[in-house]
Amino acid sequence: MNNNYFRVTAYNADNDVCIIADSNGYFSAIWEFSAFLISKGFKIIAVGNDTKFSDGNLTRIAATTETFAVRACAMGKPKITNGNVTVNGITYTPNKNS
Question: Pairing mode, if any, of strands 17-24 and 5-12?
Fold first, then answer.
């Protein structure tokens, strides 16, 4: 089975904004999702498929080939504490095995 549920945390220094974004079918490979965000000026902070990250206080998005979802955004860099990433009150663990 092809696993293409991806979550990326990224930061754009030019705009001083960070995001958590999910894709469930829009990108076929995790590098495509990362490359798209990099092309928009973001630096990738954390990335993984659904076998790597914990959901935290986010519910998963439905599968779609039409779009991806920005799950959280905030001014400044994301807060990273004890392996957990927080953006505007949304928290998850990028590497649940750590």
Answer: antiparallel
